[in-house]
Amino acid sequence: MARIAGTRGRRNDGGMTTHYHALVWIDHRVAKVFHFSADDSQRETVNSTHSHQNLHHKANSVDSGHAPVDKDYLERVAKAIANAGAILVVGPGSAKTELHTHITKLHPQIAAKISAVETIDHPSDGALLAHARRFFKADDRMRSQIHG
């Protein structure tokens, strides 16, 4: 897990810093998972193991033109955010919805912590974190945080 900035946060038993909020930016190739606070963040990258080709739906074809869902990839992303208290899922295409559906079906305890699923293109890590911090600043006012 790469440290983005700062040094504050709680340490878990494995020596890693933990944060209440998590952001996932996901497409079908890679997921960037950020665990962050107001002044600190850590990034983890989860890569899909499927080879990716640009698929195009052809006229008069039977298939949908979409790649099959990489369930192992979605599961590894779900595990990366399992300990977060509040989660924002973003991305440019359908992978964010596929992740949300996967988590809702298999991990309802994680799904309950997803605050929103939003469409965002390909911003820089800094722009992603700024967006997530603004989002949770407003979202946290609407919800009470329960720390376990």
Indicate how many domains the architecture comprises.
1
Unreliable residue stretches: 1-16
Q: What name is given to the CATH topology?
A: Nucleotidyltransferase, domain 5
Task: Write the CATH homologous superfamily.
Answer: eRF1 domain 2
Task: Please trace the helix and strand order, writing H or E for each element.
Answer: EEEEEEHEHHEH
Structure annotation, total helices: 4
pLDDT averaged residue by residue = 82
Q: Which structural class fits the helix and strand makeup?
A: alpha/beta
Sheet bearing the most strands, described? 6 strands, mixed
What's the layout of helices and strands?
Elements: E1 2-5, E2 10-11, E3 17-18, E4 21-26, E5 30-36, E6 41-47, H1 71-81, E7 86-91, H2 95-106, H3 108-111, E8 114-119, H4 125-142
Parallel strand pairs: 4-7, 7-8
Antiparallel strand pairs: 1-6, 2-3, 4-5, 5-6
Helix pairs in contact: 1-2
Core attributes:
148 residues; alpha/beta; Nucleotidyltransferase, domain 5; 6-stranded mixed sheet; two-stranded antiparallel sheet; 4 helices; 8 strands; 27% strand; disordered N terminus
